[in-house]
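Example for tutorial group B:
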């Protein structure tokens, strides 16, 4: 059968999906210059493919410019078409970045970090997902049997990631039913988010080659185990050397590290609307689910919102290189670029405010009353998406990090998502998100 290879150029959108257009591979050089046309109101397409209230209506035009630094091509060598993907930037017709281009929003945050601290961020994502067609018995959590059941899929996935230009680290059978986790090596700046977006598509494409479907939904069913996205962050100085660790500081946090984490915790209740942006995210973000429920720092604590990660090295230089912290209040409904933009801005805000390094908790915060929490400087994170959106929209500092009009656009988008789900049971809501992500 005759066939001509197509290239898909897409933007990671507010809904956490990659949306775009395809064109002949022969036109790639030309498209790198002139891009493809795009419509402003497309930003309001929710994860359920309904258009939320849009200030643009049918008006306006944008251009999506492919970025050759964000390209992935995977030929599965099964006779089917290759998955050839480029991420792109949304621009006005005169070349200016568009207000809701998520890649540009992350660039802005990273430039602010560099300007304020002189640091670059080295980041990686732990992605959890489940295979929808798999039906394994109980007892397979973390087991060889659970891994062996999908060994063909896992080996193809690792090969696809490497072929697609990523550096795979680990793949494992996770705790939940039919749940797996895949990680890749950390990367600097924008590339970390680009690879997270590409990884999700490679996982989905690999599952499809096996007649299955992968879902990154935050929660498959109300009583089940959720899929999280844990984001690891460390810093490099202008010479490219590790700059996160100070052996003489409490918990090893260098001055900028402590202030950065303090900023994330201070503004966490407002940015969680971006990093955990689905209705089911807030069923997962509850105490005793190994997720995050309070704005606390933990040391080797997997229920803290930010966790200082363990170090296996012994030598000072190796410790400094390994030292990192993990943001845990995120999931697969979040756009990687937008989530990182919010986290980076919050951290830089903490640096600018000169916040002191937070103390790490070593006890169950859910056992404290609201008054006891407040006395220690902690708060319960929002317990629903509407509450999270209200805290985001009501925090002028947080909304001020983004271009004028973005916060309103984001909230309208998410309220359109909420309208689609209104009146449904939680089981039906979980099913809708499982199908979408």
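The residue assignment follows.
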């Amino acid at each position: 059968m005759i066939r001509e290879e197509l290239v898909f150029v897409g933007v990671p959108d507010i809904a956490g999906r990659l949306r775009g257009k395809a064109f002949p591979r022969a036109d790639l050089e030309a498209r790198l210059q002139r891009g493809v046309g795009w419509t402003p109101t497309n930003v309001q397409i929710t994860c359920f493919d309904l258009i939320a209230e849009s200030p643009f209506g049918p008006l306006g035009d944008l251009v999506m410019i492919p970025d050759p630094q964000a390209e992935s091509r995977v030929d599965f060598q099964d006779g089917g078409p290759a998955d050839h993907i480029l991420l792109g930037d949304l621009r006005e017709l005169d070349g200016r970045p568009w207000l809701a281009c998520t890649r540009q929003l992350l660039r802005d945050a990273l430039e602010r970090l560099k300007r304020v601290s002189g640091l670059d961020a080295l980041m990686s994502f732990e992605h959890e997902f489940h295979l929808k067609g798999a039906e394994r018995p109980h007892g397979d959590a973390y087991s060889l049997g659970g891994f062996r059941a999908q060994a063909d899929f896992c080996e193809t996935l690792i090969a696809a990631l490497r072929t697609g230009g990523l550096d795979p680290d680990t793949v494992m059978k996770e705790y939940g039913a039919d749940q797996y986790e895949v990680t890749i090596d950390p990367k600097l700046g924008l590339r970390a988010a680009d690879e997270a977006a590409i990884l999700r598509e490679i996982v989905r494409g690999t599952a499809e080659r096996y007649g299955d479907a992968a879902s990154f939904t935050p929660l498959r069913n109300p009583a089940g185990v959720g899929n999280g996205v844990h984001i690891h962050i460390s810093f490099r100085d202008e010479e490219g050397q590790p700059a996160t660790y100070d052996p003489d500081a409490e918990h090893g946090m260098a001055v900028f590290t402590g202030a950065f984490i303090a900023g994330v915790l201070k503004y966490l209740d407002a940015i969680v609307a971006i990093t955990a942006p689905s209705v089911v995210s807030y069923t997962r973000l509850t105490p005793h689910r190994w997720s995050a429920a309070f704005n606390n720092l933990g040391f080797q604590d997997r229920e803290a919102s930010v966790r200082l990660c363990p170090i296996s090295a012994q030598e000072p230089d190796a410790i400094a290189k390994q030292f990192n912290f993990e943001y845990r209040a995120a999931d697969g409904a979040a756009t990687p670029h937008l989530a990182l933009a919010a986290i980076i801005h919050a951290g830089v805000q903490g640096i600018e405010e000169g916040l002191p390094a937070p103390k790490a908790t070593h006890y169950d915060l859910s056992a404290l009353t609201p008054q006891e929490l407040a006395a220690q400087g902690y708060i319960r994170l929002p317990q629903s998406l509407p509450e999270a959106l209200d805290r985001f929209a009501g925090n002028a500092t947080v909304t001020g990090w983004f271009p004028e009009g973005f916060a309103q656009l984001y909230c309208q988008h998410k309220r359109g998502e909420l309208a689609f789900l209104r009146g449904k049971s939680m089981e039906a809501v979980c099913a809708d998100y499982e199908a979408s992500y």
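The CA atoms of residues 112 and 140 lie 45 Å apart. Compare this with the pattern of hydrophobic and polar residues in the output above.
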